[in-house]
Inverse folding.
């Protein structure tokens, strides 16, 4: 990274936190700093040599106790583009299945001199649990139905890239808000950055107290689509549902699935987002997922730059500890 790209020398501040665990607990300044830094890293990704030496003194372990394609690859690429040493660990086939506790597993990994952990786990609160017990910096890559902060940041980044701003943009989240960590992180991130937020989906999949946060619930998808500038469409999190919240996926698709006919009926054009993985034919038809309204692959591209920014800013604190 050259000095003109260094956010520290460009008059910005450092992060106010040692870890990135929840957008709910993040300051607006930290969110803005990450997004501004990501702008600079996106530029790096378009250079002939898509790599900077910023993290060459650091070792990062990616601990994925739950399935992932995009997020895992995106973090690994971000780490490699920053020249970090990287090790990967997957929960399946690990010593946890032999009865080792999570903190023992992690302490053993850290004994090998790891500076930062990127953690995905099916239990909400795992990242905070680890942050309270170990020395390494923790980045939450999705913990149960709690939060997925880098997904919300890359979504916000993509909205800003498309509209030139986040403030005042009308963002609709569609689907299983109750079980979605993407929804939780998005809601907090968008509210903190000044977007207007609405949710739609089956009433059984809405968390209580949304109204207290200033979030409107519109039960009718077509009305909600008419209101919004951008719709972020979520997957039904069947793996996190303890009960039958919807009669069937077919019926869900009928009432809450997005298709071209629905978008054609709107009085204005809207942008479509999805964090992936898409269940084609359920929440999104292919004509929408692959159509001109969709910025889904742009989100994936932006994800690498946003994760580079998060890792870079946390690494800066390892070298200049002030927290
Ligand atoms: C999401 C996740 O794992 O929380 N995907 C992702 O990180 N790109 C959303 C999902 O699984 O539906």
């Amino acid at each position: 990274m050259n000095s003109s790209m260094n956010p520290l020398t460009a008059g910005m501040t450092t992060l106010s936190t040692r870890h990135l665990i929840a957008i709910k607990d993040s300051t607006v300044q930290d969110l803005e700093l990450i997004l501004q830094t990501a702008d600079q890293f996106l530029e790096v990704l378009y250079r002939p040599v898509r790599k900077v030496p910023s993290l060459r003194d650091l070792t990062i372990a990616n601990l994925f106790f739950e399935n992932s394609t995009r997020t895992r690859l995106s973090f690994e690429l971000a780490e490699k583009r920053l020249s970090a040493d990287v090790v990967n660990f997957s929960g399946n086939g690990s010593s946890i299945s032999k009865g080792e506790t999570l903190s023992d597993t992690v302490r053993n990994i850290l004994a090998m001199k790891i500076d930062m952990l990127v953690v995905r786990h099916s239990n909400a609160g795992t990242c905070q649990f680890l942050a309270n017990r170990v020395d390494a910096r923790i980045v939450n890559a999705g913990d149960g139905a709690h939060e997925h902060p880098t997904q919300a940041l890359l979504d916000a980044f993509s909205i800003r890239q498309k509209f030139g701003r986040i403030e005042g943009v009308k963002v609709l989240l569609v689907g299983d808000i109750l079980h979605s960590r993407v929804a939780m992180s998005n809601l907090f991130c968008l509210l903190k950055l000044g977007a207007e937020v609405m949710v739609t989906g089956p009433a059984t999949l809405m968390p209580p107290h949304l109204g207290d946060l200033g979030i409107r619930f519109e039960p009718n998808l077509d009305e909600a689509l008419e209101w919004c500038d951008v719709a972020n469409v979520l997957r039904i999190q069947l793996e996190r549902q303890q009960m039958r919240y919807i009669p069937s996926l077919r019926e869900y698709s009928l009432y809450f699935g997005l298709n071209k006919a629905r978008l054609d009926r709107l009085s204005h054009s809207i942008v479509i987002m999805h964090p992936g993985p898409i269940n084609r034919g359920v929440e999104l038809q292919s004509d929408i997922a692959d159509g001109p309204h969709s910025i889904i692959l742009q989100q994936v591209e932006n994800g690498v730059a946003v994760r580079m920014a998060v890792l870079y800013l946390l690494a800066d604190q390892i070298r200049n500890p002030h927290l």
Remarks:
- The two ends are 24 Å apart (CA to CA).
